[in-house]
Amino acid sequence: MSCATLPIRAAAAGLLLGAALGIADGFRAPPMAGETHAQRIVGVCGLDAAAGAALGAIVGVVLALTTSVAPGRRLTLASGALLLTVGAAGAARLPRSGTLRIEAARAARLEGPAPVLHDDHPRGVVLITLDTVRADSLAQMPALTARAATAQRFTAARANGAWTLPSMASIHTGLPYPAHGAAQMQSTAAGSARTGLDPSVPTLAEALAARGFVNFGVVTNAFNGQRFGFHRGFDRFVDLSRHALRNHALRRASLLRTLVPSRPDRGDAVTDQALAWLPRVSDGRFFLWLHYLDAHAPYSADPGGFDPFAECALPDCFDAWSSVRRGTLALDAAEQQRVRTLYDTDLAWLDGQLARLFAGLDASGALDHTLVVVVGDHGEAFWEPGEAGRPEVEHGGSFREPVVRVPLLAWEPGVPPSERTASVDLTMIRPAILAWSDQGGLGPLDSGVDRVTPLGSLLFANEEEGCTDGRTKVVRKRSGLAVWDLTVDPREEHPSTAAPAHLLRCLDETRARVGNGVGGDVHALRALGYVE
Asked: 72 and 126: one domain?
């Protein structure tokens, strides 16, 4: 056999073997959102076939180059194999469902390298948002707890929503639901979905860009991505949830599974991105937003090596939230404690990544002129008392305290640590950051006055709205008003009937009539474990 034809024949053999394996993988692989069975089989078959052709070509070239061949022909063989491999790699990216088609060109541009910044008066803002981290989670995060001793600690902070999209929209716009436009139900050709940020509402990044800041974002939750408008105002924006969905699709093929990481959206990847950027931007005017997803279900005893798309069960991990939510899976007290222990394990992993981030900030010298804010987007319930005596689990289904109480810490250069007990909420973060970027101080967070916090947008229940001033909480339900005196009933077990007038006015001002049931981008919901 001629050495020139050996790589071609080997590539063809690999192509056929990969195609055969791909058909089998296609039948076994779970479908992506919006993907038919035929599309799944053809897509996975294409992935395996392309990978098989590339591997076959490499094997063929190796065999050809180990024989006696003229140097010129060896170069030709190597060049051909390289082109074939590149082409196969490109082909492997093609099979994907319609829900994965995003603005790829814009995404690639936004994920480019950071420029080198320098300013005679450097000023930085680092906003760290922690997905699904309760107010009491610091007890499981010793490194962050130690760092918090030097911060301004807001011990009565609450989210304005019960899940990520409305809460993060409040952080970035300074507005409660539904004024920011996000998370409202709408009908589309593909079914019901949630809206993104109102394009007419300026974001925090856009406001800082107008002040001369260069802005960088790293997100891990699909509800913080381009589809919902959170990239607006950022010069560089890396959506690791998009990478995770891509890797999930690629890992359905046997020949690619060991070559493609399962978790490109872990906390270590977020911290790596930040540490790569800091040396280039720490001497200028910059805004860095980092969103960590590690505490979100499914929980794992090994967060660093966990594949969220693989099948797992207690005691290794817990991914059956949907069964618990439907009431088809009941856990006894020992199993409930095991689930909470898995959550605490995830918090410990997250704590290590935050410690690495703060070490990098220390080493860069940026903390001398940088405001750092750490905040949770919402909490998580673990069988605390709920409606009609039913225990509350997860988030997105109510405005109970375990769901809306979040940690909020701020490190302002030159300002001594303190503990702030006034009731505050996520809408105050944007004006606080802008106040600091303009003249210093944290604006509304410095007032010490209890905030009347509007609460809106549920994910797994009929829509409700609520208001609280930190002492009393009022929630308007279909069945009527529910009132809790948080000063004497912090676990919200005994509803009251006395609703303060100022909270009733808040309800009337913030009420929005929206649809019912589960909405949102179905692929994002499935990736986060909300739907099957």
From this structure: no
Output the pTM of the full model.
Answer: 0.85
Alpha-carbon dihedral sign for residues 105, 111, 115, 118: positive
Q: Is residue 212 packed enough to be buried (19+ CB in 10 Å), middle (13-18) or exposed (0-12)? A: exposed
Q: How far apart are CA 419 and CA 151, in angstroms?
A: 8
CB atoms within 10 A of CB 351: 22
Helix, strand, coil percentages in the chain from 3-state DSSP, rounded to 5: 45, 15, 40
Same domain? 174 vs 72: no
C-alpha to C-alpha distance for 304 and 265, rounded to whole angstroms: 11
Assess if residue 497 is contained within a domain. no
Residue 468: strand, helix, or coil: strand
Mean pLDDT, residues 463-470 taken together? 91
Q: Could you give the CA distance from residue 181 to residue 474 in angstroms, rounded to a whole number?
A: 23
Contact at 8 Å (CB) between 267 and 350? yes
DSSP at 343 = H
Average pLDDT of the chain is: 84
Distance CA 403, CA 244 (A): 26
pLDDT digits (tens, 9 = 90+) for 511-524: 644 433 334 444 44
pLDDT tens by residue, 44-54: 888 888 888 88
β pairing state of 408-411 and 370-376: antiparallel
Q: Which two tokens stand for residue 242?
A: 């998009």
- 371 in a domain, yes or no? yes
Q: Domain range for residue 288?
A: 104-463+512-527
For 156, half-sphere exposure in the C-beta direction (CA atoms, 13 angstrom radius) is 20
CB atoms within 10 A of CB 108: 9
Domain membership of residue 487 (yes or no) is no
Q: Any bridge partners for residue 373, and if so which?
A: 127, 410
| Last residue within a domain, chosen from 77, 100, 123 | 100
